[in-house]
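FAQ: What does a multi-protein file look like?

Like this. Sequence, then tokens, then the next protein.
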Amino acid sequence: MKEKRIQTDVLCVGAGIAGLMAGISAAEKGARVILAEKGHALHSGRGRGGNDHFWCYIPEIHGPDLDLFMRECLKGPKLKTMQSGTASRVLRAFLEKSFDIVKLWDDWGIPMKYQGRWEFAGHSFPGDVLTHLKYAGRDQKKIMIQKALDLGAEIVNRVMIFDLLRAGDSVVGAIGIDTREDSLVVFEAKAVVLGTGCLDRLYPPPTPAWMPSIPGNLTLTGDGRAMAYRAGADIVGPEMPKRHVGPRYFSRFGQATWIGVLRDPQDKPIGPYVTRPHRVYGDMTPEVKGVYLEEFLKTGKGPVYMDCRSISEEDYAYMMHWMWHEGNAPLLDHMKEEGIDFRKHPIEFQTYHIIPEGKIWINEKGETSVPGLYSAGDESMGGISCAATFGWIAGDNAAGYARNIPSGGVEAAGLQISEKRNRIEAIESRKEGPDWREVNIALQQLMQDYAGVVRSETLLTAGLEYLKRMRKKVDQSMIARNRWELTRCLETLNLLDLGELVFSGASARKETRGLHIRSDYPLTDPVMDGKEIFVKKVNGKPLTEAKKA
């Protein structure tokens, strides 16, 4: 296998919104920047199709009291958009910087105003402070890619980084594979920013024939979390599940973009918040309880429909405008082909499968607990607004850190590089054994059966033991017949690590909280209020601790 060596100051792993913003910020500070993307930067990540709302604090709209706005953001379901356990200082850093990013994007050509004004709507209860700015994000990635290139950042497409390299306590680079050619790629970097996005493919999707179903694609597998964990970084809240809702059997949520009311088959609203479509607030019922629609279906009271039939023509045009920018073009095309009109036909909605909420812990500078390693985006705080803002913050601080670090650190990681090369060659050289699909499907089934919607010590203990046995067998037998399958194999190995973190965190959280339901601990323990489960790799094993973030 050939080996390529690439040297830079700041390496951004992933060229989604977080990686691009980190790269632009670091390049503006004079750092040499490389963005490594396992797909293609133009089509990668959850933001590739666009977006239509940006969580932010604008003083001229919300008033001068940031503390009041923060309290509003911490109410109920809005907490789901944040890192599990986000400390107030991290939230404050995000909100203080968010308007600067809004103005930056507007200057770059991403329209952040609607008809000349700051337009807020969605993700808020009727009468509450509005926290999400509507913006036209259809071309956001194209614009940011050009900005990064103009500043001298280099984008390396179709290279999957699958592990970090360390020298002593610090990260000094990363190692990856070319997804097209038979070569290993070693990056020497003074600082690394992880921005590989959300975690899918760990639990079975609603449509078993398709491996993923969240609004991303096959490749969003929490790679950064797995790499950070193996490098010794703190992972927070891996046991906490997240459920979202959206059109049944489609893989794009966009719930806040719909102007309608969720109703049962008898046309009764399933929630108390709106009885008629409202373009500003929408129906917040599923944001209060993500599994509410699933419960309706299981008890025979469903299906549940998003009803936009009484929408005005003006509001219909408004909704179609934002649907396009939010990335729902495939859904709109399908509805047009099938002759479905939102103004005439209610659309069935469903609860999607479990998405683990575990994040890489960061501080207000975007730093992880490992020197030289930074994180942004869905890996640390969910949503495009957080990805953009903390991408910028992390890139800025990574560039500052890199100025004081000498080159050549990767030379101390020679043994790690040899071990990784040997693992790759072993997977490629095998002629018989399970491929990535077989392993991934078995893992999804195991996670669903033993760490699914209901958990207990006996289930978790048995599931973890099965997972360890599976991992041992997989390490000795999984095969890849080509570079595409090799990439999927490396993602699946990351998923096995992340599955172990779910079991460890769920076992440590001996209470029921949110969607983490322990049948043997049915009460929510007040002692755990404000605390999170931290998991760190110590002596090759996950060590858990409950503490404040």
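And here is the next protein:
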Amino acid sequence: MTDFDAKTERLQFQTEAKQILEMMIYSVYSHREIFLRELISNASDALDKLRLEAIRNPDFAAGHEPKIRIDRDEKDRILSISDNGIGMTREEIVEFLGTIARSGTREFLERVKEQPEQNMAEMLIGRFGVGFYSSFMVADRVVLVTRRAGTSDVWRFESTGDGTYTIERADAPGAFGALPGGFGTTVELHLKPENEETGMEDYVSEWTIREIVRKYSDFVSCPIEMSVTSEKDGKTVAEDVVLNSMKAIWTRPESEVSDEEYSEFYRHLSHDTNPPLRRILFSAEGATEFRGLVFIPSKAPGDLFFRERESGISLYIKRIFIMSGCTDIVPGFLRFLHGVIDSEDLPLNISREILQNDPKLRIMRRSLVRRVFASLKKLRDENRDTFGAFWKEFGAVLKEGIVQEPDVREQILDLCLWRSTKDDGLTTLDEYISRMPEGQEGIYYLTGRDCDALRSSPHLEAFLAGGKEVLLLCDPVDDLVMPMTFEYKEKKLLSVSREGVTPSGSEKKEDEASRSEREATLRPLIDAAKTVLSKVVRDVRVSDRLTSSPSCLVSDPNALSPQMERMFREMGQAVPPTKRILELNAAHPLVTKLNERLDGMEASEKDSLLGLLYDQALLAEGVVPERLQDLASGVAKLMQGYLERPGTGVTEANER
């Protein structure tokens, strides 16, 4: 090490470092408290470096007990953070604190100039080695005293953030608080006045410090000590307390952690009084190194479908808390999960914008999704009842991923459970396929809001008569999901309420002669219905799907379903009504008699009856007609006409 004779040197910060200091001092911050997280993280890194040095040289730090210490001077508002880690030489102070040697700093600062409306200063925290500079968010003077392990020189750094700093030799005694070793680093912050308007909290308050350490640094692997005072036997007594739990249970072998410890940790994360349904513990090494502990809840929270709800996954870097609700790692359709992801090599940063651009996050995201899918599939195969309970709580959310994440669409479809016309239970798509009769071209389904109502839908009649199974999809999300899902394992997904989908196959056509004959017979009714109902139907035709109902409405293959139209309207969006196809059952007595008597009807009576026929088709699929008054009036007239027929007793009574 070079010997310096001068007592005190005054040096200039590197240009980029000076710019960053100005941003730290003059910008408005929403996360001032992270300065303590950064300084504790730096102290933890220094202890890790000492441990690595000791591996190469066992005598280097013999008997060393790693510690981080926080000292408070409430009267003079001085906060000190000390560690007995590796420490720094004079050259390292200049390199690490006086300059920012990482590449890309200048380019990043140019982005700040181009986007001044963003709080870009916060994005710098933890990037390019500038975590130390966060001290100037809360302090108007920073003093650092350090001694490199294995050396005898002690150095003192001081700056007020004015663009310069001083370095001088210092005396070793008392430089590192009460920490053993005689080497390490102490950062002494002369804090700015407390100010509620600017968000400057009382950072020498015992409880403020306790809360910050618990929030960000609870799982740091070495003890973080602080001296506190209490009254005992009428005397004020000072004692050291450890602020962090150091219980990062995701770093311990699963065999060494009890079920109760995992359950307690889950309650700590989720505030859920119910036990978790399943836990997933995993780790990865290679291009990026991380660990994860994820819990699948047993019950859905009340806010599961709120847009503002965040994921319950917290991101840690080297056991330092970074953020909760990390959407860059957890896709929206898994927002019900709780747990932690702890990375060893992500850059320590609080900015979501920078994090989402890191390719390591994409690796972590894929790994998490893969592990969750594998765990759920195993649960489904081993305990169908328990998986069914999970599906009841979270199935609708999981199905959102079919639209959100096309890459995992088939994996989600593989997990899905559906109601079916086969029985009252739930079935998978693979189970449905195994029961398909030879020649069936696809997987039939029908969407709606009420599964009981779907079971009596006119759309099912010919399919059930032909022994075809139809899936009944009753979650509101199904109407959004299914139009985006064209096939599963090379089997088409076919809605029985869509034009062209019949029990004989979506492409096959019945005998043209038979169809032409039936259409010719019903021509008067078809033509009249096209005219009277022209504002609400696109076409009127003979049906191939009806066996017992008089009519039904069929949608165009690319049109919105009635349920989707209603959903958009409930959300306040203006959606033009979709004209559908009215299909008539040529064998139904109501249809044949109406066809026979049209010629003798007055126009108003014809309009009323055809309107009722259309409304009846809406009601059959669970849709309330918009013209409720007309419907009520038409039904009343029909009832009156029936009661006034000869033989009912009403006409005879009137005559008398």
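Q: Is there any per-entry metadata?
A: Some entries carry free-text notes. For the entry above: Residues 359-382 form the longest helix (24 residues).
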